[in-house]
């Protein structure tokens, strides 16, 4: 039997010491705690049970040092306490996972259903594993630290990106952290600067209806441990090294790594859900509940984390430090992040303490932080998101670009606002760089190809009778549902894809692309593939000629955006031609046009828009014409002092010539539903 010492209350979790391991658990309402030590993740019974008494408690923290054990030790907790309102909370029959465990074992014996009810789950529980807590080697692989001006995010699923028929990744590495390393050259060739990984913190794949699995990972089981399903091999001590290998390889290739984090809820569901970790440690601490013990839910997943409370904030900050300082990631994207700004009774807080602590932490000051500005309770805060350093997904950009190119009425003025940095959403001034994340598609919704190929969602494979998934997508099938052999329909769809991608990359902000949109990846019209670990949710690795043509134009647009960053994504917003002032900073002015120079048509029925970026002395440097009308139209073009080059015409058979031709004239014909970009020939 191992020798027992009082131990220390810090750090939380398990940390190796010179003579053993120190364990520390925050459980303020517990009356008794047991630490159970196992010989392996599969062991049905503990080798030793360590009882923690009053002397093992400092404030809200229970702690003990066990001599003679070390890294690799498997452990779990049993926590005792009073029965809570609603007859849920402490359930000593269940063994609990340490919220600060940095690795997890026991997956091959784990049964989620055994965490329900009153029967013991000792033989079917997950265990934490004592690991090293070393810092990431930033000397060997420093953060790339791309400016927001030049950042281009690519959202991908670690398990799905390297899978799919024709995947170039070695078979054993497909679907893993190490497999993603093999695809870094692909990402670099595409031109993106930053990868955003769908959840890679440990989640419960069994948190799904019968016969389904949780594929996306928005069902967190731990905020510290990497997800085991993306590991190559099964050694729980190796998983952190594999994540570090991935981050190191990305850094050395100049790519940043952002992680999608789910701090707003957990996989334990509502009061009828399983007792796996947080619930059994202190149910009333971690989850918002009313006086009767009913769970309050703004996540849509059964529970909502009470991030306003000090010990909960401590755990979230500890998680961020773990991933940023120990594993080396460069930032976070907060799922339903605004939910973390809610206080007691879910009241929105003007100064949420969690965000204040994040922004005041010097060790987190060099991270890129992104959030969704909405939650399922109706809270939406974009321009007034209560954290200055956190950028937000601009859902209005997505919706308005889709509506304009679909030909909706009352969409022209909104499109103009999106192309100028959404001043209507940010208090009359364009969004500051880094505050507005612009996108057309994301994991949640249609792919770009499906957006122009389906008029309705096709989610029957999800097993919910097509009731799941968003019903308001601003999508249009262009005359046929799904795959189509009609050349006219196919040509129009391809044109619309480029119209939207060009709109994204010509607009100021921080653009985000969805995995596979560059090669027209389809999900068969399914707009909610959260449970589809199959070709529906995997990457498209067998592109045809048209797929590759689309990818080539996208790459050229990315290069154009980077080359003309000061024009297209300025650090100081451009002045507007309608009211330029001599004291306004910057030398460029944005001027709006319609089919006539200087005469934009903002009427509700308008489907045309043009704009130019003008130097105060030299005149126009870039002109873009957008014809979302159903017929061809002629646009007047302002004169460029040094001559124009045409760099894009989505209505031409050769969309982006390898050597952009010079162009002259006072007018330009635009094909129906097409876009043209002209640039000062000295800038190309």
Note the topology:
Blueprint lengths: L3 E2 L7 E5 L2 E7 L5 E7 L9 E5 L4 E2 L2 E7 L6 E7 L2 E2 L3 E2 L14 E2 L21 E3 L23 E4 L1 H4 L15 H5 L2 H7 L3 E4 L41 H14 L3 E6 L16 H9 L23 H17 L4 E4 L18 H8 L7 E4 L18 E4 L1 H12 L5 H8 L16 E4 L8 H4 L35 H20 L3 E5 L30 H19 L1 H4 L6 E2 L11 E6 L14 E8 L3 E9 L5 E4 L7 E6 L12 E2 L3 E4 L3 E7 L4
Parallel strand pairs: 13-14, 13-20, 14-15, 15-16, 16-17, 17-18, 18-19, 19-20, 21-22
Antiparallel strand pairs: 1-7, 2-3, 3-7, 4-5, 4-8, 6-7, 8-12, 9-10, 11-12, 22-23, 23-24, 24-29, 25-28, 26-27, 26-29
Helix pairs in contact: 6-7, 8-9, 8-11, 11-12
What is the subunit organization of this protein?
single chain
Described by strand count, sense and barrel closure, the largest sheet is: 8 strands, parallel, barrel
Task: Quickly give the structural class.
Answer: alpha/beta
Low-pLDDT sequence parts: none
Strand elements, count: 29
What is the global morphology?
Answer: elongated
Strand fraction? 15-25%
Computed CA radius of gyration, to the nearest angstrom: 27 Å
């Amino acid at each position: 039997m191992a020798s027992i010492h009082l131990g220390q209350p810090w750090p939380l979790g398990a940390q190796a010491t010179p003579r053993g391991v120190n364990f520390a658990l925050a459980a303020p309402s517990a009356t008794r705690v047991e630490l159970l030590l196992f010989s392996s993740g599969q062991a049905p019974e503990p080798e030793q049970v360590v009882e923690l008494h009053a002397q093992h408690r400092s404030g809200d923290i229970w702690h003990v040092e066990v001599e003679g054990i070390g890294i690799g030790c498997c452990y779990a907790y049993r926590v005792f306490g009073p029965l809570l309102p609603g007859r849920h909370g402490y359930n000593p029959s269940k063994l609990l996972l340490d919220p600060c465990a940095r690795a997890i074992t026991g997956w091959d014996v784990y049964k989620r259903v055994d965490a329900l009810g009153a029967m013991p789950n000792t033989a079917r529980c997950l265990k934490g594993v004592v690991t090293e807590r070393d810092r990431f080697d930033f000397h060997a692989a420093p953060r790339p630290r791309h400016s927001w001006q030049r950042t281009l995010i690519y959202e991908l699923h670690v398990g799905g990106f390297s899978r799919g028929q024709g995947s170039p990744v070695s078979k054993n590495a497909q679907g893993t952290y190490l497999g993603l390393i093999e695809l870094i050259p692909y990402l670099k060739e595409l031109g993106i600067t930053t990868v955003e990984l769908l959840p890679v913190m440990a989640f419960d794949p069994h948190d799904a209806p019968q016969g389904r699995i949780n594929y996306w990972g928005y069902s967190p089981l731990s905020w510290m441990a990497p997800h085991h399903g993306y590991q190559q091999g099964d050694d729980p001590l190796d998983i952190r090294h594999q994540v570090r290998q991935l981050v190191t390889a990305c850094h050395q290739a100049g790519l940043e790594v952002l992680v999608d984090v789910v701090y707003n809820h957990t996989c334990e569901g509502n009061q009828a859900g399983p007792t796996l970790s947080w619930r059994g440690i202190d149910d009333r601490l971690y989850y918002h509940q009313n006086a009767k013990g009913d769970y309050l839910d703004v996540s849509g997943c059964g529970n909502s984390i009470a991030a306003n409370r000090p010990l909960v904030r401590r755990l979230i900050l500890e998680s961020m430090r773990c991933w940023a300082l120990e594993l080396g990631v460069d930032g976070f994207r907060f799922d339903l992040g605004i939910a973390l700004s809610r206080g007691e009774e879910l009241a929105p807080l003007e100064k949420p303490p969690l965000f204040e602590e994040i922004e005041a932490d010097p060790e987190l000051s060099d991270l890129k932080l992104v959030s969704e500005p909405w939650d399922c309770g109706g809270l939406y805060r974009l321009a007034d998101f209560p954290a200055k350093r956190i950028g937000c997904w601009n859902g209005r950009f997505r919706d308005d670009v889709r509506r304009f190119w679909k030909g909706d009425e009352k969409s022209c003025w909104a499109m103009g606002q999106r192309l100028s940095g959404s001043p209507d959403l940010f208090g009359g001034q364009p969004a500051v760089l880094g505050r507005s994340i612009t996108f057309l598609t994301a994991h949640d919704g249609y792919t770009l190809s499906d957006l122009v190929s389906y008029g309705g969602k096709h989610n029957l494979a999800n097993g919910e009778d097509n009731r799941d998934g968003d019903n308001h997508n601003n999508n249009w099938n262009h005359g046929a549902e799904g795959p189509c052999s009609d050349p006219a329909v196919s040509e129009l769809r391809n044109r619309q894809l480029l119209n939207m991608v060009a709109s994204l990359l010509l607009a100021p902000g921080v653009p985000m692309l969805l995995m596979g949109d560059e090669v027209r990846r389809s999900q068969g019209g399914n707009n909610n593939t959260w449970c589809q670990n199959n070709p529906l949710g995997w990457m498209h690795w067998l592109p045809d000629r048209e797929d590759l043509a689309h990818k080539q134009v996208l790459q050229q647009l990315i290069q154009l955006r980077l080359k003309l960053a000061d024009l297209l994504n300025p650090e100081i917003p451009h002045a507007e031609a309608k009211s330029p002032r001599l004291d306004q900073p910057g030398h460029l002015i944005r001027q709006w046009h319609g089919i006539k120079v200087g005469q934009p048509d903002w009427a509700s029925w308008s489907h045309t828009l043009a704009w130019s970026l003008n130097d105060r002395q030299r005149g126009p440097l870039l002109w873009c014409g957008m014809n979302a009308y159903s017929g061809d139209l002629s646009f007047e073009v302002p004169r460029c002092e040094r001559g124009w080059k045409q760099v894009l015409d989505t209505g031409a058979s050769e969309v982006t010539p390898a050597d952009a031709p010079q162009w002259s004239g006072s007018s330009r014909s635009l094909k129906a539903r097409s876009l043209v970009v002209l640039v000062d020939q000295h800038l190309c």
